[in-house]
Amino acid sequence: DLLGQEVAAFFTASESVDEGALKRRLACVLAKFKIPVYLRQLNEMPQTSSGKIDKKAIVKMADEMAHCAQ
After folding, report:
1. Of 56, 62, 54, 57, which is closest to residue 38 (Cα–Cα)?
2. At residue 47, what are phi and psi to the nearest 5 degrees?
3. pTM higher than 0.85 for the full model?
């Protein structure tokens, strides 16, 4: 059940990205409930020792973002 959950997005880019502009662009192509509430630009994605994206680290960062926003 996703009711009441908020979407967070983590991304990398070669230059700084304006979060407001990114949200406006996403609003043109995504349903309103899919637009991330929290955005964070990273220099690189966290990786596991095997070189895969560390999903647990991303979930932890998303939880921290949500708690800081409250």
Report:
1. 62
2. -125, 150
3. no
